[in-house]
Automatic annotation (TrEMBL):
It catalyses: 6-phospho-D-gluconate = 2-dehydro-3-deoxy-6-phospho-D-gluconate + H2O. Binds 1 [4Fe-4S] cluster. NCBIfam families: edd (TIGR01196). GO terms for molecular function: 4 iron, 4 sulfur cluster binding; metal ion binding; phosphogluconate dehydratase activity. This is Phosphogluconate dehydratase. Keywords: 4Fe-4S, Carbohydrate metabolism, Gluconate utilization, Iron, Iron-sulfur, Lyase, Metal-binding. It comes from Aquicoccus porphyridii. The keyword Hydrolase does not apply. [4Fe-4S] cluster binds at C155, C222. InterPro entries: 6-phosphgluc_deHydtase, Dihydro-acid_dehy_C, DiOHA_6PGluconate_deHydtase_CS, ILV_EDD_C, ILV_EDD_N, IlvD/EDD_N. Its EC number is 4.2.1.12. The keyword Isomerase does not apply. SUPFAM superfamilies: IlvD/EDD N-terminal domain-like, LeuD/IlvD-like.
Length: 606
């Protein structure tokens, strides 16, 4: 199929825009690759330290040219999604030995759970944990004793941070081995209803806790389509997983077989063999365009609109909000997974999953097929699905049609014609809104503002009965420079109750809500942020705000708005407690949300 013209145009302009930085990046990667396997340049003493604890592998590491894998793991037992990774190193080491290689745990990276810190002070470390992860992974790989890298991570900031590190060491082949989603429990829709009942005061904490534990009940990612599962979709459609690896449950034969197969595959791609395929050749402009298209086609998390630019910068590539918006306009929404529908990711996988989705997008000319992947040249490989063949896997053609058209639909009959992500501009700056779960009657709202500086203040006002009509909730000083840009999920039940009562409600913020913004129109990631004296700092209660998602505009209609002195954030609010004092430099140097909200790429995101 001929490549869609918009996809081609967006790709071409990304290539042109990125040319200086991308050329310099590739020059560095080529120089590192041409130096040859780094272990050969280490002294005997250097190597002895690296191999001292390797037992039966010690001799192979010291005396042969067998390829050695560095495992970077985000394993811990506090994230359900990362608990399964505890068993992965043994599988990887065993699979490596079977084909003459070796593997070592190079290092661990922190991995926090937004579900635990939601609405708590610790959430203010969450976004910047991505950059800590990138740096920690770089420390692990800096020992220069590895011929390839295996990354074990799944959730929100962990995968983007690991990709940033992988790109920085882009002369090495690299593969991501996912843990998979937990099995289905209490449905996401039922869980959301219980949360709304609690927010409305209809049930007590015991009933809420019972529902939450029924929903989050075992190892694996949460089953809704938030940032963690959007990450897994991206790693597959960008060619960093084996085909079909994203949504296999942990603790199954197939999961273990894919982990072993991924290990064997990455060992074939090192500079010691005949098919050297460094990560820098996989993570190119086309791969990032494919990732953005996948995000639109599945209604993925808005967090990736920040993470993808940060990941791309690490590979010398610059993405803009216009790129996302233009691709959204030509990409139909093919999936309905909670919060954009009733299904969870297990249902999505059973309905045809990634193989069928990628096949549909390729046939429509919406993806670049001519890319490099860890599985080999061409994205067409990812239209196949794995099946067990003893303890190993083999591939067969994926499904020819959706198994459930309430979850997955063809390009010829999508849930909606566009991807549902809009770029917002106006006198409040620029940001984004996700519309895939927002009913059309809520795409336009013009209402007075109520201005708040914390989530809790919004919730307290709701409990006090202060919202009695249409309202635009303005929640400011939630950007990366102010307090680290915490998730605002805690508002979702409250705003949903207000909308269910018949009020027109919208949220306008310089913060983020990821994939859980759901049915409430939410203008997110507003830049410049209020802490940088952006327009949000000039909003006052009663100002009339007009949000027109269809037109992509967000404006204050009050004539005196621009002449006001901007408010300042309360001093010291985000400075101390739960480690926040250690992140002062990160907050001071974070780039705008529109450029990835990273302290690693300069004050202006450059």
């Amino acid at each position: 199929m001929t490549l869609n013209q918009t996809v081609r145009d967006v790709t071409d302009r990304i290539i042109e825009r990125s040319r200086p930085a991308r050329t310099a990046y590739l020059d560095r990667m080529r120089a590192a690759g041409e130096a040859g396997p780094t272990r050969g340049h280490l002294s005997c003493s250097n190597q002895a330290h690296a191999y001292a604890a390797m037992g039966d592998d010690q001799d192979r590491l010291a005396t042969t040219q067998a390829p050695n894998i560095g495992i970077v793991t985000a394993h811990n037992e506090m994230l359900s999604a990362h608990q399964p990774f505890g068993a992965f190193p043994d599988i990887i080491k065993r699979a490596a030995r079977e084909v003459g290689g070796t593997a070592q745990i190079a290092g661990g990276v922190p991995a926090m759970c937004d579900g635990v810190t939601q609405g708590q002070p610790g959430m203010e470390l969450s976004l910047f944990s991505r950059d800590v992860i990138a740096m920690a992974a770089a420390v692990a790989l800096s020992h220069d004793t590895f011929d390839a890298a295996v990354f074990l991570g799944t959730c929100d900031k962990i995968v983007p941070g690991l990709v940033m590190a992988a790109a920085t060491f882009g002369h090495l082949p690299a593969i991501f081995l996912p843990g998979g989603p937990m099995t289905s429990g209490l449905s996401n829709e039922e869980k959301a209803e219980v949360r709304k009942e609690f927010a409305a005061g209809k049930i007590d904490c015991a009933a809420l806790m019972q529902a939450e534990m029924a929903a989050y009940h075992g190892p694996g990612t949460c089953t809704f389509y938030g940032t963690a599962n959007s990450n897994q979709m991206l790693m597959e459609i960008m060619g960093l997983h084996l085909p079909g690896a994203a949504f296999i449950n942990p603790g199954t034969e197939m999961r273990d077989a894919l982990t072993a197969a991924g290990t064997r595959q990455i060992l074939t791609l090192t500079a010691l063999g005949d098919d050297y395929r460094p990560l820098c050749d996989i993570l190119d402009e086309r791969a990032f365009v494919n990732g953005m298209v996948g995000l639109m086609a599945t209604g993925g998390s808005t967090n990736l609109v920040m993470h993808l630019p940060a990941m791309a910068r690490a590979a010398g590539i610059t993405l803009t909000l216009e790129d996302f918006a233009d691709l959204s306009q030509v990409t139909p929404l093919l999936a309905r997974v909670y919060p954009n529908g009733l299904a969870d990711v297990n249902h999505f996988h059973a309905a045809g999953g990634m193989a069928w989705l990628i096949s549909q997008l390729l046939d429509a000319g919406l993806l670049h097929e001519d890319v490099q992947t860890v599985a080999g040249p061409g994205l067409g490989r990812y239209t196949q699905e794995p099946v067990l063949d003893g303890a190993d896997i083999r591939y067969r053609p994926g499904p020819e049609q959706t198994e459930n058209d309430r979850i997955l639909r063809p390009v010829s009959d999508p849930f909606q014609a566009t991807g549902g992500l809009k770029h917002l501009t106006g006198n409040l700056g620029e940001g984004i809104i996700k519309l895939s779960a927002v009913a059309p009657e809520h795409h336009l709202i013009e209402a007075p503002a109520r201005v708040f500086d914390t989530q809790q203040a919004v919730i307290d006002a709701f409990k006090a009965g202060e919202f009695t009509g249409n309202v635009v909730i303005v929640l400011r000083f939630q950007g990366p420079r102010a307090n680290g840009m915490p998730e605002l999920h805690g508002l979702t039940p409250t705003l949903s109750v207000m909308q269910d009562r018949g009020h027109k409600v919208a949220l306008v913020t310089d913060g983020r809500m990821s994939g859980a913004s759901g049915k409430i129109p939410a203008a997110l990631h507003l830049a410049p942020e209020a802490a940088m004296e952006g327009p949000l700092a000039r909003i006052r209660d009663g100002d009339i705000i007009r949000l027109d998602a269809a037109a992509g505009t967000l404006e204050v209609l009050s004539s005196e708005f621009t002449g006001r002195t901007p408010d300042r954030p309360r001093a010291g609010v985000a400075d101390h407690g739960v480690g926040r004092e250690l992140f002062k430099l990160f907050r001071a140097h974070a780039s705008p949300a529109t450029a990835g909200a990273s302290p690693l790429f300069g004050d202006d995101g450059a």
